C-alpha cells in the first residue's frame, strides 16, 4: 500500500485546485482602512474648529482678566472671575429669571404642542394646511416676532391690554412688572416653538402601531383614555427629547428678552434679564470678556446638569414601568 505523496513545498497549489487570490498591496490596504475616516473628516474638522476650539479657548479666557478694548493683554486671575460672578446679585437675578421664564415657556409650550399633535393625528379636513401652518411661527424671524409682540403687549395702546380692559381688567405694565414681563417674553417663545414641537410629537404618534388604538377602541376606551394609556407611553422617548431640547433653549434664551424692550439690562430692575442677556451685557456692554467667558462656562455646566437630571428621571421612570 503506497501512501499519498505530499504536495510540493514550492508554494505552488496542487494541480486542479483554484489559484489563491492575490494579497492586496500595502497602499491599497491602507486606503481601505483610512477611506471611511476621510468621508467624515470634514464634519470633525468643522466641529473642532467651531465647536471644540471655542469651548477650550473660552475656558482659558475665563481664567484671565481680558477687556474688549485690549484683547491681547491678559492678566491671570485664576478663579477670580467665577468668584466675582457668584458674589454678583445680578447673576443670581439672571439665573432666577432664566429658570422662571424657562418654566413659564416650556411647560405650556409642550402641553399645547402635545394637544395639537393629538388633534392633527386624527382625520381632519385640511390637515396638510394645518401642519404647514404649524411651522410658520418657527420660520418667522426672532426680531420680527419680538417686535410685533412688544406692540401687542404695549401698556397704553397694546392689543392685549385692550382685550383685558374689555373684560374689566385694568391695564398691565408688561415691560415693568416682574411677572408680567416674564409672561410676555415667555409668550413669544411659546408662539414660536409650539408648532415645531407639535410636528415632532405628530411624527412620534404616527410611529405608534395602529393595532394598539384598535384594540383600545374595541375595549371601549374613549379618545382620552387612548391618549393616556396608548399615546403617552408610546411618546415617552419623544417627550424626553423635546423636554431636553426645550430646556437647553430656555437656558440660552437671548433674542426675545433683548428685543422685547431693546435693553441689555432686561428691564429697569433686571426683571427679565436671562443668563444669555447677562453674558452679552458683561462682554459687550461692560467689555469684560473674561467674566463673559466665565458666564458662558457656567451656562454650559448648568445645561449639562439639567440634561443629566432629565435623563436620570427618564431612566428611573422607564425602569419603574419595566418592573410593573
UniProtKB/TrEMBL annotation:
<feature type="compositionally biased region" description="Pro residues">
    <location>
        <begin position="15"/>
        <end position="24"/>
    </location>
</feature>
<feature type="transmembrane region" description="Helical">
    <location>
        <begin position="294"/>
        <end position="314"/>
    </location>
</feature>
<comment type="similarity">
    <text>Belongs to the binding-protein-dependent transport system permease family.</text>
</comment>
<keyword id="KW-0472">Membrane</keyword>
<feature type="domain" description="ABC transmembrane type-1">
    <location>
        <begin position="95"/>
        <end position="310"/>
    </location>
</feature>
<dbReference type="InterPro" id="IPR000515">
    <property type="entry name" value="MetI-like"/>
</dbReference>
<keyword id="KW-0813">Transport</keyword>
<dbReference type="GO" id="GO:0005886">
    <property type="term" value="C:plasma membrane"/>
</dbReference>
<keyword id="KW-1133">Transmembrane helix</keyword>
<protein>
    <submittedName>
        <fullName>ABC transporter permease</fullName>
    </submittedName>
</protein>
<dbReference type="InterPro" id="IPR035906">
    <property type="entry name" value="MetI-like_sf"/>
</dbReference>
<feature type="transmembrane region" description="Helical">
    <location>
        <begin position="37"/>
        <end position="64"/>
    </location>
</feature>
<dbReference type="Pfam" id="PF00528">
    <property type="entry name" value="BPD_transp_1"/>
</dbReference>
<dbReference type="GO" id="GO:0055085">
    <property type="term" value="P:transmembrane transport"/>
</dbReference>
<feature type="transmembrane region" description="Helical">
    <location>
        <begin position="132"/>
        <end position="153"/>
    </location>
</feature>
<keyword id="KW-1003">Cell membrane</keyword>
<feature type="region of interest" description="Disordered">
    <location>
        <begin position="1"/>
        <end position="24"/>
    </location>
</feature>
<feature type="transmembrane region" description="Helical">
    <location>
        <begin position="99"/>
        <end position="120"/>
    </location>
</feature>
<keyword id="KW-0812">Transmembrane</keyword>
<dbReference type="InterPro" id="IPR051393">
    <property type="entry name" value="ABC_transporter_permease"/>
</dbReference>
Amino acid at each position: 500500500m503506497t501512501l499519498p505523496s505530499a504536495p510540493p513545498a514550492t508554494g505552488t497549489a496542487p494541480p486542479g485546485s483554484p489559484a489563491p487570490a492575490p494579497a492586496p498591496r500595502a497602499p491599497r490596504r491602507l486606503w481601505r482602512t483610512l477611506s471611511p475616516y476621510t468621508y467624515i473628516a470634514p464634519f470633525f474638522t468643522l466641529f473642532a474648529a467651531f465647536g471644540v476650539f471655542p469651548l477650550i479657548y473660552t475656558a482659558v479666557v475665563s481664567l484671565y482678566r481680558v477687556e474688549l478694548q485690549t484683547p491681547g493683554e491678559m492678566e491671570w486671575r485664576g478663579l477670580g472671575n467665577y468668584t466675582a460672578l457668584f458674589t454678583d446679585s445680578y447673576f443670581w437675578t439672571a439665573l432666577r429669571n432664566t429658570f422662571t421664564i424657562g418654566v413659564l415657556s416650556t411647560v405650556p409650550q409642550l402641553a399645547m404642542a402635545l394637544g395639537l399633535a393629538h388633534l392633527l393625528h386624527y382625520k381632519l379636513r385640511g390637515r396638510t394646511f394645518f401642519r404647514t401652518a404649524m411651522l410658520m411661527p418657527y420660520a418667522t424671524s426672532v426680531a420680527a416676532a419680538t417686535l410685533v409682540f412688544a406692540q401687542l403687549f404695549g401698556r397704553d395702546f397694546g392689543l392685549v391690554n385692550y382685550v383685558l380692559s374689555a373684560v374689566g381688567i385694568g391695564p398691565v405694565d408688561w415691560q415693568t412688572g416682574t411677572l408680567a414681563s416674564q409672561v410676555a417674553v415667555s409668550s413669544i417663545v411659546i408662539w414660536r416653538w409650539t408648532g415645531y414641537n407639535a410636528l415632532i410629537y405628530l411624527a412620534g404618534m404616527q410611529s405608534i402601531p395602529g393595532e394598539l388604538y384598535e384594540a383600545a377602541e374595541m375595549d371601549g376606551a374613549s379618545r382620552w383614555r387612548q391618549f393616556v394609556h396608548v399615546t403617552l407611553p408610546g411618546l415617552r422617548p419623544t417627550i424626553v427629547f423635546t423636554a431636553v431640547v426645550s430646556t437647553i433653549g430656555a437656558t440660552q434664551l437671548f433674542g426675545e428678552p433683548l428685543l422685547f424692550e431693546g435693553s441689555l439690562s432686561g428691564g429697569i430692575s433686571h426683571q427679565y434679564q436671562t443668563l444669555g442677556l447677562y453674558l452679552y451685557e458683561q462682554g459687550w456692554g461692560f467689555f469684560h470678556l473674561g467674566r463673559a467667558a466665565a458666564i458662558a462656562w457656567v451656562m454650559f455646566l448648568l445645561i449639562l446638569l439639567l440634561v443629566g437630571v432629565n435623563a436620570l428621571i427618564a431612566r428611573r421612570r422607564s425602569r419603574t414601568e419595566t418592573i410593573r
